Every structure is written in C-alpha cells, then in structure tokens.
Amino acid sequence: MTTLSPQAAVQTTTDPLHLIDVDHVRFHVGNAKQAAFFYAYCFGFQIEQVSDLTTGSREAAHYLLTQGNIRFLLTSGLTVDHQACIETALYGDGVKDVAFTVFDAEKAWERAIKNGARSAAEPRTITDEHGSVTTASIRTFGRVIHTFVSRKGGYELTQVKKGGVFAPQFRKLETLTINEHNKKNPCGLKYVDHLVGNVELGKMNHWVAFYENVLEFKMFKHFDDKDISTEYSALMSKVMSSGQGLIKIPINEPAAGKRKSQIEEYLDWHHNTPGVQHLALRTDDELSSIASLRSRGVDFLDIPDAYYEQVWARVNATLTSHGKAEVKEDHKKIKDLGILVDADDEGYLLQLFTKPLQDRPTLFFEIICRRGSQSFGKGNFKALFQSLELEQERRGNL
C-alpha cells in the first residue's frame, strides 16, 4: 500500500465527528529541543518547525516533527506550573494528545460533549494574516485527550502537508544538518496505523463504550486472555475503529496471571494512570525501515531463533488456505532483522516493536507493514509477550 494516509470518503460531510486525518500526536516531554533530535536521529523525522520564545510562545516550547503523513508535536513547559512540566514529573515523556482534523472543531466538540464527553479545552480560534486554526479538546482514558482541529486559509492541512506553517507562532527550521541527512537516508515511515491505550483492570469495557458512544467508533476486533497470554501473564484487548477507518485504537487491560503483565508494569511506572502504551507507525517496506532504524541505534525486542523454526509453516498454511500469495520478502533477511510475521484471511503483515523509548518502561513504537492483513499479529502474541517478559525480568518488574 503506497498511500500516505487513509482519505476522507466525503469532503463535504455534515457529520461533525467525521474524522479527516490524524492532525498530530502531541507528546509532553522534559526537553523538547533534545527530544526532537532523538526522534530525528533515531527514527528519521524532520525537525520541521518550532514555536518557542523566539516566536512569542512564552509558556512552552513546541517542536513539529514530520515524516510521511506523521506529525509529532513535542511540547515542554517553560514555566514550573505548565501542564507539560507537571505531567513529565508524574509520567515521564509520553503521549498527551491524539488530535484529529475535522471540518468544524467547535461542532465536533459540541457533538462529543452532547454524547457524554468531558471537556478538556473549550473551542478556541487563533487567527493571523495567513489563516486560522480552531481547536477544542475532550478527555479520554487517563492523561490522554483528543483535540479536534479545523483549519482555514494558509493553515489548511493540505498546505501543512506541503510544508506550510503548522499554526500561528510557528516558524520553519531550514538549515539543520540532521534534516538533510534524513532526506538522503529515509526511514520510510508513512503514517500512524494505530495506537494502543492501557487502562486499569475492569475498565476496558468502560472505555470501549466511551469510543462507541462519544466518538461513534465501532468495535473492530476482540482478543481475550486465551489469545494474549503466556505461562506467566495475560491481557485482554478490544480494538475500536473510527467510522472512516482513519485510526484504530486497541484498549488493553490486564488479566489474571502468575506474574505481573506488561499492562501492570506500564501502570506501575506511569503513576498508576492509564495512557498510550505504543504508537504503530506504518511503512511500505518493513525490511528497509527496520534495517535503517537498527543502523541508527534503535533498540528492538529480541525475537528468539525458535520463532523462525515454526513461523513459516504457520503463516504460509494460513495464506494458501485462503488463496493468498505467500510472503514475498526474503525469509532470511526477515530472520536476520528479527521481524515478526503473521497472516489471516486477507493477507499478511510484518511487525516489530521497539524497547521503551525512555528510562521508564512505558511508551514504545511498533513498526508495521501490511500486505493485505488488517489485524494486529494475533499469531505473534505469545512470542512477543515472551520477549516482553524477558525484558521485564531484566528490569526486575516481572
């Protein structure tokens, strides 16, 4: 698949909650300038724009990172009472906001509030001579919010995708050597495929109902503790999907096990507060992307050799039974790069998970390539969880 992102089916919809795109994902970080260079160097992002003291932003610094149709906004507070400063002290660096482009942010917010959402920020419009950006936010699980964004004039998303200024008080960064290096050595990440929320025991169905009732999402898939378990730990997950197929949000909760699950470890180190466990970033070429990321020093989970002794018989049997072509990528390279493979009735996928992106064992990334399959690698759950448990044991958290 070569498109940069799913496209809105109708551009003149009257549905206030019609989601056009993932406008951006905002991270609260301790030092946005330094974090920007970490994501640029390790993951190939362009450090494209900044809003800070030099542009009139007195309370926080914001760095816009882009790659394909991915837009990360890294925010760190410049005052001790700024929310980003408070949250990084509590949770470490992590995802604060998953923002959606809509046709009218105020109407989307009003509809969500009517549907039962709690407001995080009322509608606000910032305007200058180039155009305007309207935002309004609602609360979801734990620390996370969803912001509705509507854009006009020079700030329309089509212009931003072409390199236009993101919002008032942002300026472009033109001369960074790391940006030139990344243009010549791309990592091939295209857009946010899905994001996973970790919630407390017993709260998964509550948040499933929230996405169904408030944002009018639909249930896409359901995995129970029989699907996602090892000898020691288990979890349950329900996958929510927006009506336009723009974004999928699996909601995870722990299940009973002999030892502590990865969800419990996340909550322990996240101030016992639900949040985004990982972002899945889509690529059209898994082998090339993983090779590039490994060369930049990205730490991925270690997949045992025994996994590859069984995977091809399982995957190819599934594909042939449904009349699908077998995995075209080089099998040896897949093993050498430590990539996971799974298949279903629609095709196959390749995926691999980084280790935590900071010292706290919380947020990580998934790099995923889909060859027809729209699932999440159910056949890999056991191998993945065994690798995660080895890392938990090394950290003393199992």
What's the SSE blueprint?
Layout: E1 21-28, H1 32-43, E2 46-51, E3 60-67, E4 70-77, H2 83-91, E5 94-101, H3 105-114, E6 119-128, E7 131-139, E8 145-153, H4 157-161, E9 171-172, H5 177-184, E10 189-198, H6 204-213, E11 218-223, E12 234-241, E13 248-255, H7 262-268, E14 275-283, H8 286-295, H9 305-321, H10 331-337, E15 340-344, E16 347-353, E17 364-371, H11 381-395
| Structural class label | alpha+beta
* Proportion in helices: 25-40%
Cα-atom radius of gyration: 21 Å
CATH homologous superfamily grouping of the largest domain? 2,3-Dihydroxybiphenyl 1,2-Dioxygenase, domain 1
Biggest pleated-sheet summary: 9 strands, mixed
> What string, H for helix and E for strand, traces the elements in order?
EHEEEHEHEEEHEHEHEEEHEHHHEEEH
Task: Report the sheet-strand fraction.
Answer: 25-35%
Count up the domains.
2
Mean pLDDT: 90
Query: Any idea of the CATH class of the largest domain?
Result: Alpha Beta
Poorly predicted residue ranges:
1-11
Largest sheet, spatial ordering of strands: 6-7-8-5-1-4-3-2-9
Predict the CATH topology of the largest domain. Answer: 2,3-Dihydroxybiphenyl 1,2-Dioxygenase, domain 1
Structural notes for this entry:
- By secondary structure, the protein is of the alpha+beta class.
- The protein has 2 domains: 21-184, Roll (2,3-Dihydroxybiphenyl 1,2-Dioxygenase, domain 1), CATH 3.10.180.10; 189-395, 2,3-Dihydroxybiphenyl 1,2-Dioxygenase, domain 1 (Roll).
- The chain is 28% helix and 32% strand.
- The strands form 2 sheets. It has a 9-stranded mixed beta sheet with strand order 6-7-8-5-1-4-3-2-9. It has an 8-stranded mixed beta sheet with strand order 11-12-13-10-14-17-16-15.
- Strand 15 (340-344) and strand 16 form a beta hairpin.
- The protein is globular.
- The two termini are 38 Å apart.
- Mean pLDDT is 90; it is low at 1-11.
